[in-house]
Specification:
About 40% of the residues lie in helices and about 20% in strands. By secondary structure, it is of the alpha/beta class.
Length: about 775
């Protein structure tokens, strides 16, 4: 075991020392020891503590502040160290969930924050490039705070659009200057809008302005917002690399669903610095003179709270996004047949050369990114007429309903994609129905490999069909039930292709947006990313408090194929990393569920046969001492919780320690005639120790973003836990069989004269009670 621990430490040292920024390299040794200690404690606690705390893995969140060191808009300053400490105290852990299954995972992230500030030269460079790329959006106007030379306090201001893809390379250069490894970073920018103002004619700065007028002057008299690949209007966006950008100077912007306020991004979602400082200045001016001393500290503390909401949102939806569905995919090959079901002869989506074409090679290339290096993906496209397949036609008609738009009062036809896929998958076989045959493959050998039914077993081929519904003769404004053009199920994807533009139930900058679904490639890739890669769209998450799925459109714009505010048919590197890490977490979570189920079976067996009539654990083992080595972080159990039945114990706090029955028997080797032999208990403890060591190694790989080794380690953990659970089932079955003809007798193992002392105490207590009652009771006297 010592060799494995040494290897885990060396792994952290090798990967971490080469990747940490120079300003943090000095503290790497302490960070290394702390991470290693937390991993051991978490793994040991999960496997040996009856209090069901999740397994904790470390995750580093990096934040880069640009223009918040007194060199950006409003000369505002945010202390990187204070903000780092604030985030560590306020949002130190996060537990992801399974979105489709609506349950939390057995894994929790321990978040460590690294906050840095960019230099002034970087701020000026980005401002220069941003100013060059501002284009006037003449059809849009907004309201901003007026300057001192303006008569009205508010005015209509011009709005400029900035193409984010043109600024992406400059942000990436900044990213590379501060980070030498592929870290996930949130860049928070605050630019000086007066320096970036297009054109001339803005009044010069007047030092006689009060605080409110200075804030209004710094707003520049104009607004700008970003568009990514000509989609969306936003102040925050996800790049194609491993960083996301929030510009506090941009906006205000608003977008989301038209008829549902949940997750809507409004003017107050982003802490716009001009609005924040204007509110603070107005508030301070109304305060007494003696109360204005701490104005700067009040502004800084208040703004840290607003800024933390951006970091929390990026963690929940990007850096540590939910798993869509826990699925253990052990197949070596994945076949993605794109089955076109059309109601027309206008065009064939499987033919190249027009805007309706399915780009099967590009889809195959993207699907290969969703898999591990040992897996192979192949995509092909086949076309069928709906009229030749009455059963899918009937299911499609059954899943299509009408809906009235409460805003525009327009009738819309919607397809319940989940219902259609469920009925289709449960009532039709893709191969037997003739929707996919060997003639659809270009290479006969490939067809023989992928369509051999013996090969569709585990470690063989997984078939994930994509049903492309090419409908041009149907009702106008045909969309899926959730307002999109794609629906995802466990083993299939449905994509809608129509011939005319559709007005969607979404708004951006107070206007309804429309979309054309003629090109289905982006929607197919989005469906595969969810069904094949297990990636939750960045605007969805499961809320464990409310126990439901929720939409948050904060990161709906950027380099991803999801939703109506994106037009990019590929995934960013950040989301790909999250996808592969979620694949590892899914496998480990399944293993943790299995090991917890096995330990619960042992505890149930103990509660049935090993506990006495007073519900006390039958053991005379002394409490083992607290170990000083991080390899066995056994903490001293509290005596008040030591002998509590598992089904009735109190869960006070997560730090409470209640050792499992296996630990109690393992540390009591002198116990006679245990229901489970000591050899079995030692074998179970040895297996748990091996699982613990493997979990620690897995945590080191995840901490260093080494997904390849983490994937291999998760497979080893999965197989080890399966062996452990099978062994537990076997030995418990044997123990129950041995006690089938017996009856339970409760005996007191604590022999000796203790019962005499207890009896004497009870008698003395009774005598004391009667003596006190006799002395305090009122007395009556007879009168002569």
């Amino acid at each position: 075991m010592g060799t494995r621990r040494l290897r885990a430490v060396l792994l952290l040292a090798i990967y971490g020392a080469a990747t940490l920024p120079g300003s943090w390299a000095g503290s790497f040794g302490d960070e290394l020891r702390q991470v290693n200690k937390e991993l051991h404690e978490s793994a040991y606690s999960f496997l040996h503590n009856r209090h069901k705390a999740p397994f904790t893995v470390p995750l580093q969140v990096s934040v880069l502040l640009v223009g918040l060191n007194g060199d950006g808009g409003h000369n505002f300053t945010v202390s990187a160290k204070e903000f780092e400490d604030f985030m560590s105290k306020s949002f130190g852990t996060y537990r992801p969930s399974s979105t489709s299954q609506e349950k939390r995972l057995e894994i929790e992230y321990h978040l460590s924050y690294k906050v840095a500030a960019a230099d002034e030269r970087s701020v000026l460079t980005l401002e220069t490039e941003l100013k060059k790329r501002m284009t006037l959006a003449s059809h849009d106007k907004t309201h901003v705070q007026g300057g001192p030379a303006l008569a009205e306090p508010r005015q209509d201001a011009l709005v400029y659009d900035v193409e984010a893809t043109e600024m992406e390379d400059y942000f990436h250069q900044l990213y590379r200057r501060f980070y030498r490894k592929d870290e996930h970073v949130l860049i928070v920018a605050n630019f000086d809008k007066v320096r970036m103002r297009p054109g001339d004619g803005y009044p010069p700065y007047d030092p006689r302005m009060n605080a409110t007028e200075r804030v209004a002057y710094a707003s520049g008299g104009y607004t700008y917002r970003y568009r990514y690949n000509e989609a969306g209007r936003t102040a925050q966006w996800l790049s194609k690399e491993r960083f996301a950008v929030v510009d506090l100077s941009a906006g205000p912007c608003s977008f989301g669903r038209a008829q549902n306020p949940q997750g809507f991004v409004g003017p107050l979602t982003i802490p716009h610095l001009s609005r924040f400082l204007h509110t603070m200045a107005t508030h301070v001016e109304q305060m007494p003179e003696h109360s204005r001393v701490d104005q700067e500290r009040l502004e800084s503390a208040s703004f840290r709270g607003h800024l933390s909401s951006l970091v929390i949102s990026s963690v929940q939806q990007l850096f540590a996004a939910d798993v869509w569905e826990e699925r253990i995919d052990t197949s070596e090959r994945v076949l993605v047949p794109i089955v076109v079901l059309r109601d027309h002869l206008d065009f064939d989506p499987c033919e190249d050369g027009h805007s309706y074409s399915v780009n099967a090679p590009a889809i195959e290339h993207e699907a290969q990114k969703f898999l591990h290096s040992s897996q192979k993906a192949i995509a092909l496209c086949v076309t069928h007429s709906l009229h030749d397949h009455p059963h899918p036609s009937m299911l499609l008609a059954k899943a299509t309903t009408g809906r009235m738009d409460s805003v525009g009062h327009k009738a819309t036809a919607v397809i319940d994609g989940e219902r259609f896929l469920y009925d289709l998958q449960s009532s039709i076989d893709l191969l037997a129905s003739g929707l996919l045959t060997a003639s659809d493959f270009e290479d006969p050998s490939t067809a023989e490999t992928f369509l051999n039914r013996d090969e569709t077993k585990p470690h063989g081929t997984r078939i994930l069909p994509v049903y492309l519904l090419s409908i041009t003769k149907g009702p106008y404004s045909l969309v899926m039930a959730d307002g999109s053009f794609v629906s995802t199920a466990r083993d299939a994807v449905a994509v809608l292709q129509t011939g005319q533009p559709v007005e969607l139930d979404f708004v951006s900058s107070q206007r309804r947006i429309g979309a054309k679904s003629d090109n289905p490639n982006r929607h197919i890739i989005a469906g595969l990313a969810t069904a094949l890669g297990g990636l939750t769209p960045p605007y969805q998450r499961y809320n464990p408090m409310h126990r439901r799925r929720e939409e948050t459109w904060m990161w709906a714009v950027g380099h991803h194929p999801f939703g109506p505010f994106s037009r990019t048919p590929t995934l960013s590197m950040l989301l790909l990393d999250t996808m592969h890490r979620n694949s590892v977490l899914s496998r480990v979570d399944a293993a943790l569920h299995d090991v917890r189920a096995a330990l619960d079976m042992v505890e149930d067996f103990a509660s049935e046969f090993i506990f006495d009539a007073a519900l006390h654990a039958v053991t005379e083992a002394p409490v083992p001492p607290v170990a000083s080595s991080p390899a066995s972080p056994y903490r001293r159990p509290k005596q008040s919780l030591m002998h509590t039945k598992p089904s009735t114990r109190l869960r006070l706090v997560l730090d409470e320690w209640e050792p499992s029955w296996l630990d109690e028997i393992f540390h009591d080797p002198s116990r006679k005639n245990p229901p489970l032999p000591h050899t079995v208990v030692r074998r179970l403890e040895r297996d748990l120790t091996e699982v613990e060591e493997q979990l620690v190694e897995l945590g080191t790989y995840l901490y260093n973003e080494n997904v390849v080794d983490a994937h291999a380690k998760s497979i080893a953990i999965r197989y080890k836990v399966q062996t452990f659970r099978n062994y537990v089932n076997k030995e418990l079955a044997a123990a129950r069989e041995a006690t089938r003809c017996c009856h339970v007798e409760h005996t007191i193992l604590n022999s000796g004269p203790n019962w005499i002392a207890y009896s004497a105490i009870v008698v003395l207590a009774i005598l004391a009670y009667f003596a006190i009652m006799n002395c305090t009771s009122p007395r009556t006297y007879k009168q002569n």
